[in-house]
């Protein structure tokens, strides 16, 4: 009886999970605009958020006119010029970088190193990075690019625990059933942590960004000073295609902290990561043209740009 009940519970839990995935695939976007922040693009293409993406966000907001630059022979200082029409993850980022890491609305790239020199600062920095990830995910969900289901996650977790308990109850009578139930419990608990799915719109946007990344991997833009930024350079940095950026933009964590983030289901966008695409009114208007150019080049050169290298695997 225990084995039969466990099998029925597993089937029901699996049905709950895949029904959530199906609902996500038919959900329409709230907005048709396709504009990205570096944190959004990185998360959507399965990257973990690191100090590289902090740098890319600063450059992106500078290029967008949100940040201003005061440059001297000794250092480069960024300051907030305007805060209108920003997403919640951008607002959180500005408060964090310019008032906690920086000083009174100003930020130098070296501030992150100074902030994380002590263990207390490193712990606070790690916590804020995780919080920022949460804001990015919430923005993504608000745009209907992903769909989360806390109810499904709860049901899968409880079902997994019940399978563990049931397996323990029959361990002496039927060890093979115990192994099967414990395996099912592991699968359900793992699935519970991945109750986030890409919508149909999200899948389309992921493919567009993959094409853009592969375009940049072939036509890598030259390194730019902060006065000569381009969209291509900012996103080459975002996608890990620019390796020497720290010479110009020395933003480093004292311990080179990397926030480990849970994987999303493969159909969601995912390995150990960082994703998101959000609408931003202040983003430069040439982004759409860049994506279109990348797709045109794909057709001209006969290359498959759907599976870029350099992302984590789920």
TrEMBL record:
It comes from the Bacteria. The keyword Transmembrane helix applies. The chain crosses the membrane at residues 153-173. InterPro entries: YciQ-like_C (IPR048389). Keywords: Membrane, Transmembrane, Transmembrane helix. It holds the Pfam family DUF2207_C. Residues 36-248 form the Predicted membrane protein YciQ-like C-terminal domain. This is DUF2207 domain-containing protein. It comes from Alkalicoccus halolimnae.
């Amino acid at each position: 009886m225990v084995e039969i009940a466990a099998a029925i519970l597993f089937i029901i839990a699996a049905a709950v999970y895949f029904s959530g995935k199906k609902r996500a695939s038919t959900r329409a976007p709230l907005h048709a605009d396709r504009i990205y922040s570096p944190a959004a693009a990185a998360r959507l293409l399965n990257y973990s958020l690191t100090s590289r993406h902090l740098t890319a966000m600063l450059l992106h907001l500078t290029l967008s006119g949100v940040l201003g630059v005061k440059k001297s022979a000794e250092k480069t200082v960024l300051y907030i010029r305007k805060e209108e029409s920003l997403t919640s993850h951008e607002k959180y980022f500005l408060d964090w970088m310019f008032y906690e890491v920086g000083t009174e609305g100003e930020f130098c790239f070296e501030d992150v190193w100074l902030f994380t020199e002590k263990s207390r600062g490193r712990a606070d920095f790690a916590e804020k990075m995780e919080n920022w990830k949460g804001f990015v995910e919430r923005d993504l969900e608000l745009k209907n690019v992903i769909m989360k289901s806390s109810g499904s996650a709860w049901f899968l977790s409880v079902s997994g625990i019940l399978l563990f308990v049931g397996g323990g109850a029959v361990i002496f009578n039927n060890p093979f059933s115990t192994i099967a139930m414990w395996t099912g419990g592991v699968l359900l608990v793992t699935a519970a942590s991945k109750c986030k799915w890409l919508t149909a719109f999200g899948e389309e946007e992921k493919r567009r960004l993959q094409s853009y990344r592969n375009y940049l991997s072939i036509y890598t833009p030259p390194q730019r000073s902060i006065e000569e930024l381009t969209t291509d350079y900012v996103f080459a940095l975002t996608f890990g295609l620019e390796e020497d950026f720290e010479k110009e933009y020395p933003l480093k964590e004292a311990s080179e902290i990397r926030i480990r983030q849970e994987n999303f289901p493969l159909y969601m966008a995912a390995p150990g990561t960082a994703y998101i695409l959000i609408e931003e009114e202040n983003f430069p208007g040439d982004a759409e043209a860049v994506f279109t150019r990348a797709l045109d080049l794909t057709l001209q050169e006969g290359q498959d740009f759907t599976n870029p290298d350099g992302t984590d695997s789920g």
